[in-house]
Amino acid sequence: MIHITALDTGTVRAWQRGAPDAYGNPPERAVSDGGGNPCRHCLRYIPQGAPMLILAHRPFEGLHPYAETGPIFVCADLCARHPEDSPLPVVLTSSSHYLIKGYARDDRIVYGTGQMVPARELLVAAETMLKRSDVAYAHVRSARNNCYQARVDRA
User: Fold this and answer.
1) What is d(CA 155, CA 146) in angstroms, rounded to the nearest whole number?
2) Distance, C-alpha 139 to centroid of its chain
3) Neighbour tally for 113: CB within 10 Å
4) How far apart (Å, rounded) are the C-alpha atoms in residues 43 and 4?
5) Burial of 87 (0-12, 13-18, 19+ CB in 10 A)
6) How far apart (Å, rounded) are the C-alpha atoms in residues 61 and 140?
7) Cα 42 from Cα 121, distance rounded (Å)
8) Nearest Cα to 149, choosing from 48, 20, 39?
9) For the chain, which residues make up each domain, given as ranges?
10) pLDDT tens-digit series, residues 2-28
11) Over the Cα atoms of the chain, what is R_g?
């Protein structure tokens, strides 16, 4: 059994108050055009006309060669965190494919785990990946731009 882990509420609230991103910059404020800006906290698309934040995010504790940093969106207004025990969020079903990669306890990529999977097979592929003893968790990323979407953990 697995669950989808959205970004931590405390971190997102800090960004909503102007705390710096992974590069030390304040989040950029923008307005969603409704064209597919997934919030990494509520794991919903930010509606057209709604304020949003664009910032650099590094989903790892420390700095090391595998600690990828990239752009993400979050709602500028308060939103509820995606519950870990709920079904697959819409933002992980709307593209045809997603990239998933497994990581070890030391936050290093477990080589051979990276794969593009059809959206309909995402949960099964992630569950299979997390059965490996050398994989502590997985990341789901966009297949087109490699942007971080969410983390997958064992339930």
Assistant:
1) 25
2) 7
3) 19
4) 10
5) exposed
6) 17
7) 22
8) 39
9) 2-75, 90-154
10) 999 999 999 999 999 999 999 999 999
11) 15
